[in-house]
Design a protein that fits this description.
alpha+beta; 13 strands; about 290 residues; seven-stranded antiparallel beta sheet; single chain; six-stranded antiparallel beta sheet
Protein backbone atom coordinates (compact mmCIF):
# COMPACT_ATOMS: atom_id res chain seq x y z
CA UNK A 1 0.00 0.00 0.00
CA UNK A 2 1.40 3.37 -0.97
CA UNK A 3 0.33 5.18 2.19
CA UNK A 4 3.69 5.22 4.01
CA UNK A 5 5.95 7.74 2.35
CA UNK A 6 9.61 7.78 3.31
CA UNK A 7 11.14 9.33 0.21
CA UNK A 8 11.63 13.05 -0.39
CA UNK A 9 9.21 14.65 -2.81
CA UNK A 10 11.12 16.06 -5.83
CA UNK A 11 10.77 19.70 -6.86
CA UNK A 12 9.05 18.71 -10.12
CA UNK A 13 6.56 16.34 -8.46
CA UNK A 14 3.51 18.23 -9.76
CA UNK A 15 4.73 17.90 -13.32
CA UNK A 16 5.43 14.20 -12.90
CA UNK A 17 1.96 13.37 -11.58
CA UNK A 18 -0.03 15.47 -14.02
CA UNK A 19 0.21 13.20 -17.04
CA UNK A 20 -2.93 11.79 -18.66
CA UNK A 21 -3.87 8.12 -18.36
CA UNK A 22 -3.45 5.91 -21.43
CA UNK A 23 -5.49 2.71 -21.83
CA UNK A 24 -2.94 -0.11 -21.88
CA UNK A 25 -4.96 -2.53 -23.99
CA UNK A 26 -7.56 -0.73 -26.15
CA UNK A 27 -10.31 -3.27 -26.73
CA UNK A 28 -12.18 -1.71 -29.65
CA UNK A 29 -10.96 -4.52 -31.89
CA UNK A 30 -12.52 -7.00 -29.45
CA UNK A 31 -16.02 -5.64 -29.92
CA UNK A 32 -18.34 -8.60 -29.85
CA UNK A 33 -19.88 -9.09 -33.27
CA UNK A 34 -21.59 -12.19 -31.91
CA UNK A 35 -23.66 -10.44 -29.27
CA UNK A 36 -26.68 -9.60 -31.42
CA UNK A 37 -26.79 -13.20 -32.66
CA UNK A 38 -26.51 -14.52 -29.10
CA UNK A 39 -29.31 -12.29 -27.84
CA UNK A 40 -31.59 -13.58 -30.58
CA UNK A 41 -30.53 -17.21 -30.12
CA UNK A 42 -31.06 -17.20 -26.36
CA UNK A 43 -34.81 -16.79 -26.94
CA UNK A 44 -34.81 -20.41 -28.16
CA UNK A 45 -32.71 -22.03 -25.45
CA UNK A 46 -33.70 -25.46 -24.15
CA UNK A 47 -32.39 -26.75 -20.84
CA UNK A 48 -30.21 -29.81 -21.22
CA UNK A 49 -29.04 -30.52 -17.67
CA UNK A 50 -28.25 -28.92 -14.34
CA UNK A 51 -25.86 -29.33 -11.42
CA UNK A 52 -26.48 -28.20 -7.85
CA UNK A 53 -23.49 -26.83 -5.94
CA UNK A 54 -23.86 -27.40 -2.18
CA UNK A 55 -22.84 -24.62 0.22
CA UNK A 56 -19.10 -24.59 1.04
CA UNK A 57 -18.40 -27.11 -1.70
CA UNK A 58 -17.68 -27.25 -5.43
CA UNK A 59 -18.68 -29.39 -8.39
CA UNK A 60 -17.65 -29.71 -12.01
CA UNK A 61 -19.80 -29.39 -15.12
CA UNK A 62 -19.23 -29.77 -18.87
CA UNK A 63 -20.45 -27.54 -21.69
CA UNK A 64 -20.19 -28.29 -25.40
CA UNK A 65 -19.05 -25.59 -27.81
CA UNK A 66 -22.08 -23.67 -29.03
CA UNK A 67 -24.11 -24.27 -25.88
CA UNK A 68 -24.91 -21.82 -23.09
CA UNK A 69 -24.59 -22.20 -19.34
CA UNK A 70 -26.00 -20.23 -16.44
CA UNK A 71 -24.91 -19.79 -12.85
CA UNK A 72 -28.06 -19.17 -10.86
CA UNK A 73 -29.04 -18.03 -7.37
CA UNK A 74 -31.78 -20.35 -6.16
CA UNK A 75 -32.35 -20.07 -2.40
CA UNK A 76 -30.58 -17.00 -1.07
CA UNK A 77 -27.75 -14.54 -1.75
CA UNK A 78 -24.63 -16.54 -2.51
CA UNK A 79 -21.31 -15.85 -4.20
CA UNK A 80 -19.58 -18.39 -6.47
CA UNK A 81 -15.96 -18.82 -7.58
CA UNK A 82 -15.62 -20.05 -11.16
CA UNK A 83 -12.71 -21.86 -12.86
CA UNK A 84 -12.91 -22.68 -16.58
CA UNK A 85 -10.77 -25.10 -18.60
CA UNK A 86 -10.71 -26.24 -22.21
CA UNK A 87 -12.27 -29.64 -21.69
CA UNK A 88 -9.62 -31.65 -23.56
CA UNK A 89 -6.59 -29.65 -22.42
CA UNK A 90 -6.49 -28.59 -18.78
CA UNK A 91 -3.36 -26.54 -19.47
CA UNK A 92 -5.63 -24.07 -21.25
CA UNK A 93 -7.52 -22.34 -18.49
CA UNK A 94 -9.17 -19.02 -17.68
CA UNK A 95 -6.69 -16.14 -17.41
CA UNK A 96 -8.29 -13.62 -15.06
CA UNK A 97 -5.34 -11.21 -15.15
CA UNK A 98 -5.37 -10.72 -18.92
CA UNK A 99 -9.18 -10.64 -18.96
CA UNK A 100 -9.01 -7.90 -16.31
CA UNK A 101 -6.41 -5.97 -18.33
CA UNK A 102 -8.69 -6.07 -21.38
CA UNK A 103 -12.08 -5.38 -19.80
CA UNK A 104 -11.52 -3.95 -16.34
CA UNK A 105 -12.07 -5.13 -12.79
CA UNK A 106 -15.62 -6.46 -13.25
CA UNK A 107 -17.23 -8.34 -16.13
CA UNK A 108 -20.68 -8.24 -17.68
CA UNK A 109 -22.53 -8.78 -20.98
CA UNK A 110 -20.32 -8.97 -24.05
CA UNK A 111 -17.09 -9.49 -22.13
CA UNK A 112 -15.02 -12.54 -23.00
CA UNK A 113 -13.20 -14.90 -20.66
CA UNK A 114 -9.76 -15.30 -22.18
CA UNK A 115 -7.55 -18.34 -21.71
CA UNK A 116 -3.95 -18.59 -20.56
CA UNK A 117 -0.79 -18.35 -22.67
CA UNK A 118 0.09 -19.65 -25.21
CA UNK A 119 -3.56 -20.10 -26.21
CA UNK A 120 -5.13 -16.69 -25.45
CA UNK A 121 -8.58 -17.13 -26.92
CA UNK A 122 -12.06 -16.57 -25.62
CA UNK A 123 -13.29 -19.61 -23.74
CA UNK A 124 -16.73 -18.10 -23.22
CA UNK A 125 -18.64 -14.86 -23.71
CA UNK A 126 -21.03 -13.45 -21.12
CA UNK A 127 -24.38 -13.32 -22.90
CA UNK A 128 -26.68 -12.16 -20.08
CA UNK A 129 -26.34 -10.65 -16.62
CA UNK A 130 -29.42 -10.06 -14.49
CA UNK A 131 -27.34 -7.82 -12.19
CA UNK A 132 -26.01 -5.44 -14.85
CA UNK A 133 -28.37 -2.81 -13.43
CA UNK A 134 -26.02 -2.43 -10.44
CA UNK A 135 -23.21 -0.77 -12.38
CA UNK A 136 -20.68 0.86 -10.02
CA UNK A 137 -21.71 2.25 -6.65
CA UNK A 138 -20.40 5.31 -4.74
CA UNK A 139 -17.52 3.26 -3.32
CA UNK A 140 -16.51 1.97 -6.74
CA UNK A 141 -17.94 -1.44 -6.01
CA UNK A 142 -19.49 -3.71 -8.62
CA UNK A 143 -20.33 -7.39 -9.20
CA UNK A 144 -18.56 -10.28 -10.99
CA UNK A 145 -14.95 -9.32 -10.32
CA UNK A 146 -11.67 -10.57 -11.72
CA UNK A 147 -9.53 -8.97 -9.02
CA UNK A 148 -10.00 -11.37 -6.11
CA UNK A 149 -8.03 -14.56 -6.50
CA UNK A 150 -10.31 -16.87 -4.43
CA UNK A 151 -10.40 -17.50 -0.67
CA UNK A 152 -7.74 -20.07 0.19
CA UNK A 153 -6.35 -21.98 3.18
CA UNK A 154 -2.87 -20.48 2.89
CA UNK A 155 -3.94 -16.86 3.29
CA UNK A 156 -6.36 -17.93 6.02
CA UNK A 157 -3.49 -19.60 7.86
CA UNK A 158 -1.27 -16.54 7.35
CA UNK A 159 -3.83 -14.10 8.75
CA UNK A 160 -5.69 -16.12 11.38
CA UNK A 161 -3.39 -19.05 12.13
CA UNK A 162 -6.27 -21.46 11.50
CA UNK A 163 -6.54 -24.41 9.15
CA UNK A 164 -9.76 -24.13 7.15
CA UNK A 165 -10.54 -26.71 4.46
CA UNK A 166 -13.75 -25.42 2.83
CA UNK A 167 -12.55 -22.20 1.24
CA UNK A 168 -12.95 -21.91 -2.52
CA UNK A 169 -9.40 -22.97 -3.40
CA UNK A 170 -9.83 -26.22 -1.47
CA UNK A 171 -13.36 -26.74 -2.80
CA UNK A 172 -12.17 -26.36 -6.39
CA UNK A 173 -9.24 -28.71 -5.70
CA UNK A 174 -11.50 -31.42 -4.28
CA UNK A 175 -13.88 -31.18 -7.21
CA UNK A 176 -11.05 -31.64 -9.71
CA UNK A 177 -9.70 -34.61 -7.75
CA UNK A 178 -13.10 -36.28 -8.04
CA UNK A 179 -13.82 -35.34 -11.67
CA UNK A 180 -10.42 -36.00 -13.25
CA UNK A 181 -9.12 -38.61 -10.80
CA UNK A 182 -6.09 -36.42 -10.07
CA UNK A 183 -4.00 -36.51 -6.95
CA UNK A 184 -4.36 -33.50 -4.69
CA UNK A 185 -1.03 -31.96 -5.65
CA UNK A 186 -1.72 -32.08 -9.39
CA UNK A 187 -5.27 -30.78 -8.97
CA UNK A 188 -4.17 -27.88 -6.79
CA UNK A 189 -1.59 -26.78 -9.37
CA UNK A 190 -4.21 -26.19 -12.03
CA UNK A 191 -6.73 -24.37 -9.83
CA UNK A 192 -6.47 -20.76 -10.98
CA UNK A 193 -7.65 -17.23 -10.26
CA UNK A 194 -11.40 -17.06 -10.59
CA UNK A 195 -14.33 -15.05 -11.84
CA UNK A 196 -16.06 -14.09 -8.59
CA UNK A 197 -19.64 -14.57 -9.72
CA UNK A 198 -22.18 -12.32 -7.92
CA UNK A 199 -19.49 -11.00 -5.54
CA UNK A 200 -19.67 -7.24 -4.87
CA UNK A 201 -16.15 -5.86 -4.59
CA UNK A 202 -13.85 -2.94 -5.31
CA UNK A 203 -10.80 -1.08 -4.05
CA UNK A 204 -11.03 1.40 -1.18
CA UNK A 205 -10.50 5.04 -2.12
CA UNK A 206 -7.78 5.68 0.45
CA UNK A 207 -5.56 2.58 0.69
CA UNK A 208 -6.81 0.88 -2.51
CA UNK A 209 -7.39 -2.35 -0.60
CA UNK A 210 -9.68 -5.02 -1.96
CA UNK A 211 -13.07 -4.82 -0.24
CA UNK A 212 -16.31 -6.78 -0.35
CA UNK A 213 -19.92 -5.95 0.45
CA UNK A 214 -23.13 -7.93 0.71
CA UNK A 215 -23.97 -9.17 -2.77
CA UNK A 216 -27.15 -7.79 -4.37
CA UNK A 217 -27.87 -11.22 -5.88
CA UNK A 218 -31.26 -12.77 -5.10
CA UNK A 219 -32.99 -16.03 -6.08
CA UNK A 220 -33.77 -15.91 -9.77
CA UNK A 221 -30.69 -13.89 -10.69
CA UNK A 222 -28.20 -15.49 -13.05
CA UNK A 223 -25.08 -14.92 -15.10
CA UNK A 224 -25.16 -16.58 -18.52
CA UNK A 225 -22.29 -17.62 -20.80
CA UNK A 226 -21.88 -18.84 -24.38
CA UNK A 227 -19.23 -21.56 -24.76
CA UNK A 228 -16.77 -20.91 -27.59
CA UNK A 229 -15.02 -24.25 -27.13
CA UNK A 230 -15.75 -27.44 -25.18
CA UNK A 231 -15.47 -26.49 -21.52
CA UNK A 232 -14.90 -28.06 -18.14
CA UNK A 233 -16.20 -25.72 -15.47
CA UNK A 234 -15.66 -25.90 -11.72
CA UNK A 235 -17.79 -23.77 -9.41
CA UNK A 236 -17.43 -23.28 -5.66
CA UNK A 237 -20.23 -21.94 -3.47
CA UNK A 238 -18.09 -19.62 -1.33
CA UNK A 239 -18.05 -20.12 2.46
CA UNK A 240 -18.59 -16.37 2.73
CA UNK A 241 -22.21 -16.67 1.57
CA UNK A 242 -23.07 -13.21 0.23
CA UNK A 243 -19.63 -12.01 1.43
CA UNK A 244 -21.18 -9.26 3.53
CA UNK A 245 -19.26 -10.16 6.67
CA UNK A 246 -16.40 -12.63 6.27
CA UNK A 247 -15.26 -15.68 4.38
CA UNK A 248 -13.06 -18.73 5.07
CA UNK A 249 -15.20 -19.73 8.05
CA UNK A 250 -18.39 -21.57 8.91
CA UNK A 251 -20.07 -18.47 10.35
CA UNK A 252 -21.66 -16.91 7.26
CA UNK A 253 -25.05 -18.16 6.11
CA UNK A 254 -24.54 -19.99 2.82
CA UNK A 255 -26.85 -21.25 0.09
CA UNK A 256 -26.48 -23.61 -2.89
CA UNK A 257 -25.95 -22.42 -6.45
CA UNK A 258 -27.21 -24.01 -9.64
CA UNK A 259 -25.43 -24.44 -12.94
CA UNK A 260 -27.73 -25.15 -15.87
CA UNK A 261 -26.65 -26.15 -19.38
CA UNK A 262 -28.72 -24.94 -22.33
CA UNK A 263 -28.61 -25.90 -26.02
CA UNK A 264 -30.05 -24.19 -29.06
CA UNK A 265 -30.74 -25.25 -32.63
CA UNK A 266 -27.64 -24.35 -34.63
CA UNK A 267 -29.74 -22.47 -37.16
CA UNK A 268 -30.09 -19.75 -34.53
CA UNK A 269 -26.30 -19.40 -34.35
CA UNK A 270 -25.79 -18.78 -38.05
CA UNK A 271 -23.04 -16.20 -38.48
CA UNK A 272 -21.39 -16.82 -35.11
CA UNK A 273 -17.61 -16.42 -35.15
CA UNK A 274 -16.04 -18.80 -32.66
CA UNK A 275 -12.73 -17.81 -31.12
CA UNK A 276 -9.48 -19.38 -32.29
CA UNK A 277 -6.11 -20.09 -30.70
CA UNK A 278 -3.53 -17.32 -30.76
CA UNK A 279 -1.72 -17.13 -34.08
CA UNK A 280 1.49 -15.79 -32.53
CA UNK A 281 4.39 -17.80 -34.02
CA UNK A 282 5.95 -18.48 -30.57
CA UNK A 283 9.43 -17.57 -31.81
CA UNK A 284 10.00 -15.12 -28.90
CA UNK A 285 12.87 -13.53 -30.80
CA UNK A 286 14.93 -16.70 -31.02
CA UNK A 287 16.13 -17.31 -34.57
Amino acid sequence: MKVKKFSKKPDDSKKRISTNPIICYPNENLENENLNILHKARKYLKKESEVLIPPRDAKTFKVKMGNFFRIESIEGPQVGDLNLFQADNLDEKFYSGKTRALYGTHLSVGDKMFSSFPYLRSLATISWDSLDWYGYDKDGGSVHDVIGTRCDPYTSKLISGNDYHYCCHSNLTRALVKEKNLNISDAEKIVHDVLNVFMLTGFTNDTKQYFMKSSPVRPGDYLEFFAETDLLGVLSACPGGDCGSEHSSDIAKCFPLKVSIWNVDKKHLEGIKFSSLSKYNKNHGIN
